[in-house]
Amino acid sequence: MSVNRCVHLFSRLQRHINTRTSRITSGGCRVASGSSLLHKQQAVSSRNVSSNSSSSKPPDTSLFVPVSLKTDPAVHGTVGAELTQPLDKNELLKILNRFYKKKEMQKLAADHGLDARLFHQAFISFRKYVLEMTSLPADLHIILSDICCGAGHIDDVYPYFMRHAKQIFPMLDCMDDLRKISDLRVPADWYPEARAIQRKVIFHAGPTNSGKTYHAIQRYLAAKSGVYCGPLKLLAHEIFEKSNNAGVPCDLVTGEERTFVDSEGRAAGHVACTIEMCSVNTPYEVAVIDEIQMIRDPSRGWAWTRALLGLCAEEIHVCGEPAAIDFIRELMYSTGEEVEVHTYQRLTPFSILDHAVESLDNLRPGDCIVCFSKNDIYSISRQIEARGLECAVIYGSLPPGTKLSQAKKFNNPDDPCKILVATDAIGMGLNLSIKRIIFNSLVKPNINEKGEKQMETISTSQALQIAGRAGRFSSKFKEGEVTTMHRDDLPVLKEILSHTVDPIETAGLHPTAEQIEMFAYHLPDATLSNLLDIFVSLSQVDGLYFVCNIDDFKFLADMIQHIPLNLRSRYVFCTAPINKKQPFVCTSFLKFARQFSRDEPLTFDWVCRHVSWPLAPPKNIKDLVHLEAVHDVLDLYLWLSYRFMDMFPDTAFVRQIQRELDDIIQQGVRNITRLIRATDPNITDPLQTQSNRRSQTGSNIGAASSSVLTKTRGQRGQRASGGVMDSSLASRLVRDGLLTPDLLQQLQKEWSKDQKQENAKENRLNGVEPRLSDKMP
């Protein structure tokens, strides 16, 4: 270990050391190669438990929702009034308001967990309870009567106030238990089976196209048993096929699919799965965790953390960026496992060009234009085909089968399609024969740690992931090129790629169903969304971890809160991977939950009625988007069918119509430019416009010339972005690339000159002297 690394760890140890004795894991006892690992374990153990001795962070009391009390006046009777006398409401109001204003009472309540916010809410509820109840408990009635008569002190109200406060805020009585449940500081201890064995961790580090995953997979194929964990269904499918083609029986497990190679359904020794689906209870000889840098992903990072800490495998092969090496090494210190690092260099070079493409006329075979929105995809693909070129289209919401079909079309040397228009979905999971990557933009929408959407420049890691698709080792292009569509973006791209990738510093965590169930035991009246909020508010994490964003989970929880479901079923429904931007998918999710709550199985006929199957091929982009949403709904059905098999029984039939739907979507994507034109009836066919443009009246050009020129020069953000433009002929010609701004300006001048000559001729015929401006050239 380097001197710098020792200094780094020692500084952290100094910062986090406390009085607790460092805990040594069982795995560390079996490593007899000196005491260095023991010291590392002690340092990290101290780090992991460091916050035990520090004061717990105060809870976010804005998340504490008061519980409505169901009181029955008949329970209390009139004992209090019979023993004393009826209470005067006006006098009671004065007493309660005096109690509220006493600083001593507020301070005493704060010592018992009632901050100013909760104290106020509790008092409002208590006052309403006292003044509106026709019959109070006997003990409270007697105390209030004594105070009214001068025989008691106003402070005597405090115990009854606190009793009421704990009834409407039940978390006050169990705050210590809630803190223990939400303590996430030592996640390695959640996986005792993995801690019971001494695992060997091998990190395959390198850029894209360096062969790092290839070497890990070779070890996976040679093992007696193994599991591959990837970020995408496409990657899991690829390893599934590669393994079986190599004569190694391998099963496939994704959220929506289970494929067993054994005809009787017995599990094979090898399995390829999406990382969320990996089993942390099954023993393997070798496990491969791909794209380990995604352990810091704000939404999905928890799945990589779980796999890395929990997989029961003799060898753990992790593949990813070199920026993750130090962090993974430090994470493994907490488990007593050293990391062996294998580094790889890119197999084929790629270079950044010194010039931008600037025009779609300059495209070449093997080009891939990368966009960060579907509108850009639609606009650019249409302009490319207006030039008589064919292009393939790939974006994230397309079904896997359609993505593979488009990739195959682009890769086929005998296919006339030589251009690819894609989002950053090509960064993983597809083998593409790309010569040149062209960034249409360097800005993309992103979700920050708070779950807020924002536009930001792509990171070095993202740029390298996409740029690395150029000149792949297995493709016909042995050298790759990278550039931008627009001249102004090129220096920015060079600046981005010149930086080193930011080192990974934290790993994601997510509350488990068991933890939420324990929370619900203490807070039975809280909603699932509120339980999650309180859990995150109280959670304590070590400096190596963060709690993943739970906004999508809460969105689904709020959507089905009114539906009567048990907590475990509700939790499972809320972990479903759905696209909440699609209204039809959200509506379907809601209907699925309602049908499930009635204990009525969701049959194939029910699903067909819901999605209006059979479906016709798309006639425009709106139809295509709807078909993609229907595909997502069928995915949701399949995902739920593996969690609730009796309630979603017709998996085979649904999978069959999903394949048919995939074919329909493929047909739509193949004709995507026709769909785009059909979507906007104001858009004419560019080729037809080109052939007829000379017959158009010059007035159209002149009327729009200044606005078009202004937009062309000044609105860089609308370049080929599908943004709203003037629907005039001039605008369409410029947008379609059939008329350049310079040519448009020249046409305007010629038209203006012709118009002046026509006016002068008319004036001479009418005997009118020409104006000075008409004589000017």
TrEMBL record:
It is found in: Mitochondrion matrix, Mitochondrion nucleoid. The lineage of its organism: Eukaryota, Metazoa, Chordata, Craniata, Vertebrata. Gene3D superfamilies: 1.10.1740.140, 1.20.272.40, 1.20.58.1080, P-loop containing nucleotide triphosphate hydrolases (3.40.50.300). It comes from Amphiprion ocellaris (Clown anemonefish). This is ATP-dependent RNA helicase SUPV3L1, mitochondrial. It is an enzyme of class 3 (hydrolase). The keyword Mitochondrion applies. Its EC number is 3.6.4.13. InterPro entries: DEXQc_SUV3, Helicase_C-like, P-loop_NTPase, RNA-DNA_Helicase, SUV3_C, Suv3_C_1, Suv3_DEXQc, Suv3_N. Residues 42-62, 682-724, 749-777 are annotated as: Disordered. Signal peptide: none annotated. The gene is SUPV3L1. Residues 682-712 have a biased composition (Polar residues). GO terms for biological process: mitochondrial RNA 3'-end processing. It catalyses: ATP + H2O = ADP + phosphate + H(+). Belongs to the helicase family. It comes from the Eukaryota. Residues 352-520 form the Helicase C-terminal domain. Its cofactor is Mg(2+); Mn(2+). Residues 44-56 have a biased composition (Low complexity). Keywords: ATP-binding, Helicase, Hydrolase, Mitochondrion, Mitochondrion nucleoid, Nucleotide-binding, Transit peptide.
